[in-house]
Automatic annotation (TrEMBL):
<keyword id="KW-0472">Membrane</keyword>
<keyword id="KW-0812">Transmembrane</keyword>
<feature type="region of interest" description="Disordered">
    <location>
        <begin position="68"/>
        <end position="88"/>
    </location>
</feature>
<feature type="transmembrane region" description="Helical">
    <location>
        <begin position="20"/>
        <end position="40"/>
    </location>
</feature>
<dbReference type="InterPro" id="IPR043239">
    <property type="entry name" value="SMIM29"/>
</dbReference>
<feature type="compositionally biased region" description="Basic and acidic residues">
    <location>
        <begin position="72"/>
        <end position="81"/>
    </location>
</feature>
<protein>
    <recommendedName>
        <fullName>Small integral membrane protein 29</fullName>
    </recommendedName>
</protein>
<keyword id="KW-1133">Transmembrane helix</keyword>
Amino acid sequence: MNSTTPPPAVPDGDVAVGYVLVPFFLFTIIGIVVAVIMYIRKKKRIDRLRHQLLPVYSYDPSEELNEAEQEMLWREEDTRDPSSTFSR
């Protein structure tokens, strides 16, 4: 055997693991970052919608319960069939 030729290269197990683990961790970190960004955008969108709808669905605690009940009764009377009121 010639002493000037280097011995054949034996692949290290560390290099092979690096080729697998580095992309795995890279994709995992990118996936987590994308999920966090999507969660923050969704939360901002829901908060914005909530603030737009808040005046529509606001409840006035100073309103008397009897007034609220009376409004519900008036609405029921408006939705009744007019022919049924004359049958008495």
